[in-house]
Request: fold
Amino acid sequence: MVNRNAFLLLAIFCILFMFSSASHATSNPPGEEVSVCMGCHENREMSLTFKNGEKLSLYVDNHSLLGSAHKNLGCSGCHGFSAGDHPTKQFKDRRSLIISISDACKKCHTFKKGIHLRMVNMLKQVVCADCHGSHAIKPVKEAGESCFGCHKYGFSLSFKDGGRQSLEIEEEALKSSVHSKLRCADCHFGFSSKEHPERNFPDKRNFTIVTSETCRRCHFDKYTKTLEGIHFNMLLKGNLKAPVCVDCHGAHAIESGRKEKIQSARRRQTCHQDIYAIYAQSVHGKALLSMHNQDVPVCSDCHRAHDISDPRMADFRNDIPQMCSNCHANEELMRRYGLSTAVLQSYLEDFHGVTVSYYRKQKNTMRHIAVCTDCHGIHDITRTKGPEASIVKANLIKRCRKCHVGASDNFPDSWISHYEPNFKRAPLVYAINLIYTIFIPFMIVGLVLQIILHIWRYAVNR
Amino acid sequence: MIETVKKNGEYIRRFSAWRIIEHQANAIAFVVLVVTGLSQKFHDSTWAEWIIINLGGIDNARLIHRYTGLVLGFLTVQHILLSSYGVIMKKWMPSMVINIKDFTDAIDNLKYYFGITDNPARCDRYDYKQKFEYWGVVVGGILMILTGLTLWFPTKVFHLIPFLPGQIIPAAKALHTNEAMLAFLVIVIWHIYNSVFSPDVFPLDTSIFTGWISKERMIHEHPLEYERLTGVKLKGHHEANTVEETQEEDIKSAS
Reply:
């Protein structure tokens, strides 16, 4: 009995309470309105079903609401609903509900200029809630990255020349890039939802070049290197086709430059297609592309990545022996392929090697001296053993004749192919060296002994 | 007529003007060749780098080396030709020809140095040490000319002698560089000792500069030539040290 009475009492109390709050809804402070709405919307089970079958939970988290920028607006401020006036609306899907509710924002937030004006007018598919959230709404500067709110849609930027650049960013690509920890504004300096300057580019290329300049804010070392590079100098001279950072590294899907050699090589295909084709047929290229060998050099290993110098210049030529020896004088690396590491030293000891070494020191090169690539090929470097050996041999005499006009067919043999002279390879050279290594000390010791004896005799006689 | 003695026989003419010029030219060319050549041989070392850079670079160093080589080559060739002509046609005395006596002299001198015999070998105009150096310069010079030209004109060599194997070029380089090292060491150690530091001549053997040699040195070092020139029969070299005083009297009266 007591139970029943108690229940009735509670029910009456509840009904009275509801009526009293409903009648005061419009005039009461928002906090009260919220608590009325929350009476139902705190229920986690409550949901709305759209025409397309999609379901939307009608649960509202009281805490996030109270922490939001709009905590003083109350529910009706945006939703127009109140406990007394709670129309049943039918939406096609969840998206159209969000678009519809976002219209309410314009009641307070009007835009006369800037990115919001453009978005509000142009981008019908992007609404305020996409960036700012709904109940937990916060000033954007506290809300974190909101750029994807707009930039996940395929809208585009148009240039003066009529070209277009899609502004759609794939969030996944960005997240898997080396820059996943960066915020948009770290690269797109000066951009935020508030500050979103409008810029006019004559064409897409100009846009890319200007955007690329942001990289140097972090990668200043690389940037200074590019200042010495041929590509930057081409750009300075007005060749806009010269590549900038993003042309090689990509923009949002940026990868570590060192990680993937094949990717690195393939990227060069874009501009240097013919050279890439030759490289792909070379001993290095084949090993990389068909065997995924990571030891072989790709473009940037020889030409360097940022301070790429003009390979037609003498300085580049004279550095080639050192360049090749980065790998070919590396004992551990060469052992894997059964190659000799004596190639550098034997070259440097030879006539050409001495000349090139001095040209490097003198900085006033007069002539083109034969370096590694002259005999072995440049991008078409071939094996010197096996079937390709005859090709190397045939190329050799042609190269010799470039400087040694009228060289006879046996002239290339005067280069004993990086071998230390031995009895089998170059018996004459070997014999001469052997005779003198015995004869010179023998002679000198003999003469010195005679001198000592002479002095000794002189001293004794006195 | 060139004087053969002066100061009353105290000095005897040893070298003609041309021989003096030849020696000086040879010496200068040799020094230049050594400086430019050894710095190429030891191209890695810092002193070589300093020399080559200061000569205006490797190309300049080679240019100087080659043209100086031509000078030395010319000196060598003219010497061989003129001397051969003189010896064969003009009946000059072939004083530089090596003979059995040179070997016995060397052995005699060794015996003397070790104290086995009491007196050194009695030599003629050129002793075996001088002949050794002379032929070293002549034969070495010919080797250096041939190998040097081979290295200077590597393609021409194959045109001249088409059947030569390719390794003739590195072989020429090996020969050139090794022979140069040998010549350099012999000159620095042996020639400089014998003409500067040897107690016989210290502080300097001036005969190749003045053309004159003192009578004492002639008697001491070239007794056979002295006897032939003056007609004075020196007493047996065995007593050379003890009879020097009386000998000097003899020479004065003879001249």
Q: What stands out?
A: The mean pLDDT of chain B is 87.
